[in-house]
Specification:
The protein has 701 residues and is of the alpha/beta class. The protein has four domains: 65 residues, no CATH class; 101 residues, OB fold (Dihydrolipoamide Acetyltransferase, E2P), CATH 2.40.50.140; 204 residues, Rossmann fold; 162 residues, Rossmann fold (3-Layer(aba) Sandwich), CATH 3.40.50.300. It contains 25 helices and 22 strands. β3 and β4 form a beta hairpin. The structure holds adenosine-5'-diphosphate (ADP) and magnesium ion. The site of magnesium ion has 4 residues, from α11. The site of adenosine-5'-diphosphate (ADP) has 17 residues, from α11.
């Protein structure tokens, strides 16, 4: 047997258990070993039965003096009842729905029981406890009288069964598994060797053992991930890109003629980007900044540098509306530099060209693509249409991706492979604030620039938590605002269980009902429309366009409203079921308003305004910094809001480490150190193998 042995080779794993285990992602002995308990129950203390006189969890050891099967009088539920005796007295043990126990246990047998004790009419009794027969003179219980591991989401595989499978394998686990962490790191960080860590995570003898095992295993997981990310980063650095020289005069010509001056954070980010683009290896940088922090102009600075050096730039955004907005903005902002800008979406393609004296005209797709291929076009803005085979560039030096999380890795790399010999510099942009630790994990192969400062002129959005009593009053206020010409968003609550297929439908229903309610009962005099994830892209875009043109007063939506679209006239944001959102997400949603010169408002309607929810939501009243709020989310709600657990395949206790900046940083530093002395991991073949396995696994998901 080794780690790759299929679980079907284990005795007791028949075809039905094999399937169920596979559903949990367990196909091999190795995967079984790395399926960790998510919690434990401490049944290590053995109580004399006469001392069990309060409700609670207990372990007892004794002899069965009586055992019988029966059925409850009314519901006819089968049960087994036994009497357990030790040298202090007797106690009853009842197992419901397990009548067969009466056959497998016998009078006179010695057993352990661990479980809940309650008082019933005829005395104290154990209720469906775990039990184990004591064989021979030495007893090493697996399911009772110790700290018992409990495994997550079992789908027909009980923790008892997993313990049963794992115990014999763990006995000789040191022969099965090899140490992959470099010796030096184990010593330096005082980590458990892998075999011990596995034994202790599954069958710990004490709380301390659990902690040490978790420390080792989570360090390892994050260390492996960091090696993977850093290797990717190093591989990228070995590629060739077009070096773009910095021409400060031209850049000042752009920034000096804007209707505003750049914030310091914008300047710093632009500088970092320009420094990267000067290099002969491709930039791979993420520009993060709150909604409205002004990322677009920073991207335009980078674009101008590349264009002025004689190269082309591609600018991809996830939706048509957003692409059009960027096209208009680019055509306007960069017009003074006499450049040709094209817009390529699924629909009307456009061109603004110096030959046409700055008029924007419609152009056929073929013509636009031809211009791009021949290098006549300096900047091509568009949607996914940009990654089609037919779109070719003559000398693409820079790719800009707006709202990068909306694109898959494949789409990103497709756009970057338009040139066979050189890789364009890549600037990704995201408005999703993410805490530092997670940025290193989720975007570990990227360099990071952060705009953590908002343009000064922006008016603060007045945010309030509205109690149910004030609902009507708030509606009247909104009515007045809409009468004044403002527009409003109503966001419907998120339905928690993301895995649940019905939740999307439930969300949809919530949006439809809310729209009906608002349109007929609350705001009959206004035009109310809705937007949700189940609509076709074209329908969504159509609604957004009409909203932008003020053809709609009130838009009811799920939280998926188009990111980044600038609706300057929207002044009201109502969020129903606000407590179901993370703070950072609420902040992002709130950021859809407050883009114009008038005062904007955000009303949070919690479903159940308990003191605790209010307290959490209050953070939004005092903070306007997405990063600050994201850190708070991490502290209060854990990393789940940011990192999909499935995506990274991490157990909960490893996810928890992501809260701890020092631990992540330590793992990253350790990974850097190993790679710096041995970038190909020649000295660490086992480590290398695990990294490539991990890579395969993460790619599959
Ligand atoms: P986001 O980071 O969300 O993409 P945008 O780039 O769309 O933000 O900028 C939002 C608005 O702020 C735009 O209208 C832009 O012209 C404006 N803006 C950008 N930078 C500044 C600044 N330094 N001062 C004032 N307004 C700015
Ligand atoms: Mg934007």
């Amino acid at each position: 047997m080794d780690l790759t042995t299929p679980i079907s080779k284990l005795s007791y794993v028949g075809s039905s258990y094999q399937k169920r285990l596979e559903n949990l992602g367990i196909k091999t002995v190795g995967e079984l070993l790395f399926h960790f308990p998510h919690r434990y129950e401490d049944f290590s203390k053995i109580s004399p039965v006469s001392s069990i006189r309060t409700k609670g969890k207990y372990t007892a050891i004794g002899e069965i003096t009586k055992i019988e099967a029966g059925k409850t009088p009314r519901q006819m539920m089968p049960f087994t009842r036994a009497t357990l005796q030790d040298n202090t007295g007797e106690i009853d043990v009842v197992w419901f729905k397990q009548p067969y126990l009466a056959k497998s246990l016998e009078e006179g047998e010695k057993i352990f029981v661990s479980g809940d004790v309650s008082y019933f009419k005829d005395g104290w009794q154990f209720l469906s406890p775990s039990y184990e027969k004591i064989k021979g003179r030495k007893a090493f219980p697996t399911h009772t009288a110790r700290i018992i591991p409990i495994y997550p989401s079992t789908e027909g595989v009980s923790s008892r069964f997993l313990r049963f499978l794992l115990k014999p394998i763990l006995k000789n686990v040191d022969l099965l598994i090899y140490e992959t962490l470099p010796e030096k790191i184990i010593k330096e960080k005082d980590l458990l060797p892998i075999a011990e860590a596995l034994q202790q995570i599954h069958f710990p003898k004490s709380q301390k053992e659990i902690e040490k095992a978790r420390k080792r295993l989570s360090f390892e997981r994050i260390f492996l991930l960091q090696i993977l990310l850093l290797k990717k980063k190093m591989a990228m650095a070995r590629e060739t890109a077009i070096p773009v020289p910095i021409n400060l005069e031209e850049i000042q010509d752009l920034t000096g003629n804007l209707p505003f001056s750049l914030t310091n954070a914008q300047k710093k980010a632009a500088w970092q980007i320009l420094q990267d683009m000067k290099k002969e290896s491709p930039m791979n940088r993420l520009l993060e900044g709150d909604v409205g922090s002004g990322k677009t102009i920073v991207a335009f600075i980078a674009a101008l540098a590349a264009i002025k050096a004689g190269y082309q730039v591609a600018f991809m955004a996830p939706t048509e509306v957003l692409s059009r907005q960027h096209f208009d903005e680019a055509a306007k902002t960069l017009w003074r530099f006499k450049i040709d800008v094209g817009l390529l979406t699924g629909k009307k393609d456009k061109l603004r060209s110096k030959k046409l004296k700055g008029d924007t005209v419609e152009i056929s797709r073929e013509k636009l693509i031809k211009k791009c291929k021949e290098g006549e076009l300096n900047l091509l803005v568009g949607t996914h249409a940009l990654i089609q085979e037919t779109v070719k560039f003559k000398n693409l030096a820079l790719v800009i991706l707006d709202e990068q999380h909306r694109f898959g890795t494949k789409q990103r790399s497709k756009l970057c492979l338009k040139d066979k010999y050189r890789i364009p510099h890549l600037l990704s942009m995201s408005a999703t604030p993410i805490p530092r630790t997670l940025a290193l994990t989720v975007y570990g192969e990227l360099d990071l620039s952060v705009i953590n400062e908002m343009p000064k002129e922006r008016k603060k959005i007045k945010t309030s938590i509205v109690s149910p009593k004030k609902r009507e009053e708030t509606y009247s206020f909104i009515k007045e605002e809409v009468k004044k010409g403002r527009q409003a968003f109503f966001i419907c609550p998120r339905i928690e269980e993301a895995k649940d297929k019905n939740s999307a439908l439930a969300e949809l229903k919530a949006v439809e009902e809310e729209k009906e309610r608002l349109a007929s009962l609350v705001f009959p005099e206004f035009k109310v429309e809705m937007l949700h994830g189940k609509m076709k892209t074209s329908e969504k875009e159509d609604i957004m366009k009409r909203f932008q043109r003020k053809k709609i007063d009130i838009l009811v939506s799920t939280s998926v409203i188009e990111v980044g679209v600038d609706i300057r006239n929207a002044g009201i944001m109502v969020i129903e079921g606000a407590e179901r959102f993370g703070l950072a997400q609420l902040h992002q949603v709130r950021g859809r308003v407050g883009r114009g010169e008038f005062q904007s408002y955000c009303f949070l309607f919690p479903t159940s305004p308990s003191e605790k929810t209010k307290q959490r939501l209050r953070a939004l009243l005092s903070s306007e910094n997405g990063f600050e709020l994201a850190e708070k989310d991490l502290e209060l709600r854990g990393p789940g809001d940011f990192v999909g657990k499935r995506q990274w395949g991490m157990p909960d206790f490893t996810m928890d480490v992501l809260k701890d900046w020092e631990q992540v940083e330590e793992a990253r530093e350790a990974a850097k150190e190993i790679l710096s002395e041995d970038s190909e991991l020649k000295k660490y073949p086992l480590l290398k193998k695990r990294i490539s396995n991990l890579e395969k696994k993460l790619h599959l998901e």
